[in-house]
Amino acid sequence: MILVTGATGQIGSKITEGLIQSKADVRVFVRDENHLGDLKNENIQVAEGTFEDMESLEKALEGVDRLMLIGQDNPDQVQQHLNVIQAAKRQGVKHIVKLSAFGADKNSPVALMRDHAEIEDAIKDSGMEWTFIRPHLYMQNLLRFGDSVAENNTFLAPMAHDAYSLVDIRDVAEVAATILTTENHNSKIYTLTSPHAENYDEIAETLSSLLGKTITYQAQSPKDFERDLLESGTPEWRAYDLAYISKAYKGSDKHLITSDIEDLLGRPARSVKDFLSDHLSTFKN
């Protein structure tokens, strides 16, 4: 039995879909099963609860061999996941697959990366088998610029002119489902990237080609980007991490490219052009 936490999220839902397609025995852990939408069917078991409710966690983990640990980013994420790890160990879970992040480091200037590192250490110390999935920045973050591109033919981001090997969430989910349903992944860390690193000027050029009009990228300072996020109502902890996320990558790490996706899936990772082509309507009026 495989348990997926965070199954209503954009990655957790896609992992669950992949597991259903592979005919795996799947249980999902959610706050409210009514939020499952199309995932709710006879092919999965549903356990309701929260990361704070140990009783609901232990009930959800009964009979589970493999755990896919995902949670929504929030200031309480470390304690929430420590609760899951403790409950999993008590219930005899054999293997935890954690969705982490490339850049996870206990000394990172970005809180999200420090949190991931602390959770990874706790899993290693638990005595259970483990696998860490560390995706680079998600291509889906580009969708935030849809309205700006559609209305003003430009977008702003605090990424300077450095190249990043962004990764598509769809590839991340497929990798996770593969790891959960195959063997020989114990004590392995998979770093997921696209086949090519691109800066945001190049992404603007790709959008220009696909849309048939000139799109420009404006590099914004992290401080100004954070200010704009705060003014739009983004929580302080989230605004800082989004504005200063580039600081989580040292030197050439920004444009690191790995073959992990192709090695696991037998096909190349999706490119930024693939992603933008599939979501082009987001950038149109």
Q: What labels describe this entry?
A:
Rossmann fold; seven-stranded parallel beta sheet; alpha/beta; NmrA-like; 9 strands; 2 domains; 285 residues; two-stranded parallel sheet; NAD(P)H azoreductase
Describe it for me?
By secondary structure, the protein is α/β, with parallel strands linked by helices. The chain folds into 2 domains: 2-137 and 168-192, NAD(P)-binding Rossmann-like Domain (Rossmann fold), CATH 3.40.50; 139-164 and 194-255 and 271-283, UDP-galactose 4-epimerase, domain 1 (Alpha-Beta Complex), CATH 3.90.25. 39% of the residues lie in helices and 15% in strands. The longest helix has 15 residues, at 111-125. It is globular and about 55 Å long. Its EC number is 1.7.-.-. This is NAD(P)H azoreductase. Pfam families: NmrA (PF05368).
